[in-house]
Give the backbone structure.
Amino acid sequence: MIVAGVDIGSQTSKAVVLKGDNIYRSALFPTGTDLYAVARKVVENAAQGIGHTFDDIQRIVATGYGRVSVPFAADTMSEITCNAVGAYHFYPDARVIVDIGGQDSKAIKLNDEGKVVNFAMNDKCAAGTGRFLEVAAETLGVSVAELAALSRKSGNRIRISSTCTVFAQTEIVSLIARRTPQEDIAAGLHESIVSRVYGLVNSIGPGDTGRVVMTGGVARNDAIVSLLANAMKREITVPEDPQIVTAFGAALVARSRLGSE
Amino acid sequence: MQLILDKLKLRYSRRNTEIVKWKDNTGGKVIGCLPMYFPEEFVHAAGLLPVTLFGDNGPIAHANRHLMTNACGAVRGTFEDLLLGKYDALDGVAAVLICDQVRFFFQVWSLDHEFGFFHQMWRPFNIDQSSRPFLLNELKRLKSALEEFTGNAITPGKLCGSIRLFNETRSLMRALNDIRKTRPGLLKASDLVKAIAAGMIMPKEEYNSILKELITQTRDSDYESGEKPKVMVCGHPCGMPEEEILDLIEEMGAVIVGDDFFTGSRYFSVDVPCSGDPVEAYADFLLNLIPCTTYHYPQNWIGQDRSLSTYGDYVADYVRENGIQGVILLREMYCDPFDLEFVMLKRKLEERNIAHITLNTGHEAGSLETQRTRIQGYLEMLSC
């Protein structure tokens, strides 16, 4: 049985092709403007990783914001459900998932059976998302990876607007003009994103037991993970490849639906 | 059936030009009533046409110069229409002061525009033994103001006649809503809210006959309901809920079988009693509407069986009694009464183990695509 999950995010498209129970490969490309083309390319690429072609795939489930633009998918499913299925597969004791993607962030609460019982998503703007960090890094003239390293060197965290990415950018320019050290700005930015995400997590009533898993591209930023863990007063687990968890969940859904046909 | 629905929707969308047309045809006068709860029957009994004012849902280009940023969509939308001259054909405007924003902005209306008739009706928020005499007095004040404006006496007989006519409207609306409940999916929620709203801007005599035909055709439809999750949609206290959101909910696979919209159950659930003094009956009607976030019941907040949210009790009971799987809360941005009740409502739904989701709505409320994800995620949660 060969199935695939494809997650067309606002910034990055991911695919996981799953063969049998344990063999899988993933692929990842920038989303760009042609959603159909990128969806096809990312699935083909993942299939090739396990020596198969696109045509060998028996069922595909699409998720992510571009899910409606994948005509070859048998089903579409929200990234909330797919993310929960994927995270629960890797960590059956997961009860809270924090997913920070390119342009949105989500907090998802699971019960003992891995069922979604509550979730929340960021509202209206990109504050508290990967895009926020990208804009900030561009403004500071460093990479996103360097931003995390810089923030750890700070001895004087400053407060940055957490309500709007564009206004935060203006604030950064103003701080640069006042010769505020880069590391302090970086630390302030991380605090800002975490305060936003922490509010989101609290809104779902996260409880105080069970594993907290963080997924999405921003989970690779260990400064964010560590600050959020401190805010939540809980350990946070980051999967080996946090960006593909949602696509993996979509592939699991495809497998389950193919099996029940 | 769809033809009649489309006709009613068209009347709703042309609501302001319809006023001019009606005046040209009849020579009558029109009073614009801000949502919600305005005693339209008194206006009708005075020989005038009451029309509910729904603001436009488009961008706000003029009203923002006058308003603070936290004014709700209904207040901004109607004020925008006023400034654009869309209400120029009205002979008067009136409102029940249901919240602080309406109270404040309606005062601004009178400063900005001169209307032949301008009436503000006060209303208690905390309901106790002083509420009835207060409301009764306000209704008598309204009656006198209308009599003075028109020169027509509002006799008990005339008022009873108007109440009977409007009760018939409410009864027909309930019949339509019952079809929606018993044959889920037959009537689109976005069609229904506009069909109801059309009844608030048309002469009731004409509207009732159209509604009777619609009910007949709807009953005769051979539509068969499928097995879809049934949801109740609550909130959006006085404005017209966004058509796109209602359509999205149903496109994603749910059927809306209940609501508490002003352009829905809130308008037609309860009749005005037809016996005794009609003014007193109307005061009782206003005190016995379905629970609302603009009414509070302090007597329920004390004692062992206390309930902080009568509104939450109502929603939870409605869900259980109608076999509904979940509740979608439309949280109109900057609606103070709904925000005040929101935490207690959510707590009530959690206590009763009712799955729910909140969608922020209103002018400039965010992208429809993120709403699509929220709704799909929620419906998947319900069906798992």
